[in-house]
Amino acid sequence: MLARRVSHIKPAPTLALTAKVNQLKATGLDIVGFGAGEPDFDTPDFIKEACIKALREGKTKYAPSAGLPQLREALAEKLLVENCVEYSPSEIVVTAGAKMALFLVMLAVLEEGDEVLLPSPYWVTYPEQILLCGAKVVEVPTEEENFILRADMLKEYITPRTKMLILNSPSNPTGAVVPEEEIKKIAQLCLEKNILLVSDECYEAFLYDGDRFVSPASLSKEIREITFTVNAFSKTYSMTGWRVGYVACPEKYAKVIADLNSQSISNATTFAQYGALEALKNPQAKEFVQNMKKTFERRRDLAYELLRDIPHVSVVKPKGAFYIFPNLSHYSKKFGSDLALADYLIEKGRVAGVPGSAFGAEGYLRLSYCVSEEVIKEGIKRLKEALLSIP
Ligand SMILES: Cc1ncc(COP(=O)(O)O)c(C=O)c1O
């Protein structure tokens, strides 16, 4: 009796892997887990305190479906100051994480048979959400050399049914960052071809080597009109479990997205929104984020150097996010698939990563460096030994 629209649906492989590793750990097995898609830092106390205060003050009722007015105002200010895009609060909708923001955007604009350009490797949830909306996933492969999407790569995939492009820079799973000049060309192409641009900016805080983050919507008034700027508190402030994200877009879309929110989840959890507000307002937050970023940058350097040292493994130095995506196809071929290799690594090597096929890239393994430097060293040592001991 299940609906056709859910016939293809799979659980998020990243969450499934974390569950499997936790289960094995609970039986006493010592496993190094590189699977988590969330910072290992705790949410800062000042954010927790703001939420506790809200709870004590009775902020436990429904909130406006588009989000608390003061949070939407603070987000408009953040987008102006940090991202150089002018959005009014009425163009911002607070959602239950970025995942829900993306889903609501797609529900609002995608029709049956529409085509969505999805650069690969891609984050696991995009294709599922596109399919749930009845649209078609059009994968646009990037090159292994750097995984950076270029406008010229898109051209051959554009048809009269192309409705949307999803841009995720810095990228999960590759950590690739699209340079500003290329973002301009990509956005310009979207304008010419009448394609909506979804910019998933979840990893904007994690950009390394002194690079500056660029929001496509900041590039011109016209580009802003076709862009959905999606972001969340999840990664930036280590608030993944709080479920607070948002989308900023022209009001005609924002209104419908707020209505979809109101008819599905009502609103993002009220007291969690007070925590999010504190993250934007408290000056200590900047320091917290900076510290986290510096830590991730050091870990990235370490993981990159160690992975490079493994025979027959090629790896691109990520420019952002907190993932590294080595190519292990030399080894996965011996197992027939990267899924089988990932299982072998967990069972024999006691080290866990997410197989590349989950991201549309067979033969790779996504390692998240949301673990200490000691754990990175131990985990990559185990990875190397396990790979080298494959007959
Ligand atoms: C690229 C990307 N977008 C969106 C999300 C979802 O974020 P949230 O936890 O805020 O829903 C994730 C989480 O892993 C992600 O990697």
What's the short story on this structure?
This protein is an alpha/beta fold and 391 residues long. The protein has helices spanning 13-26, 45-56, 69-83, 97-109, 125-132, 151-154, 180-193, 221-226, 251-264, 270-281, 284-308, 329-335, 338-349, 373-388; strands spanning 32-33, 92-95, 115-120, 136-141, 162-168, 196-200, 227-232, 245-248, 323-324, 351-352, 354-355, 365-368. The protein has a seven-stranded mixed beta sheet with strand order 2-8-7-6-5-3-4, with helices on both faces. A three-stranded antiparallel beta sheet has the order 9-12-11.
Describe it.
This protein is an alpha/beta fold. It is built from 14 helices and 12 strands. The protein folds into 2 domains: 4-42 and 286-388, Aspartate Aminotransferase, domain 1 (Alpha-Beta Complex); 61-282, 3-Layer(aba) Sandwich (Aspartate Aminotransferase, domain 2). Helix 8 (221-226) links the parallel strand 6 and strand 7. The radius of gyration is 21 Å and the shape is globular. 50% of the residues are buried. Bound molecules: pyridoxal-5'-phosphate. Pyridoxal-5'-phosphate (PLP) binds at residues 37, 97-99, 123, 168, 172, 200, 202, 232, 234, 240, 245. Residues 37, 97-99, 123, 168, 172, 200, 202, 232, 234, 240, 245 line the site of pyridoxal-5'-phosphate.
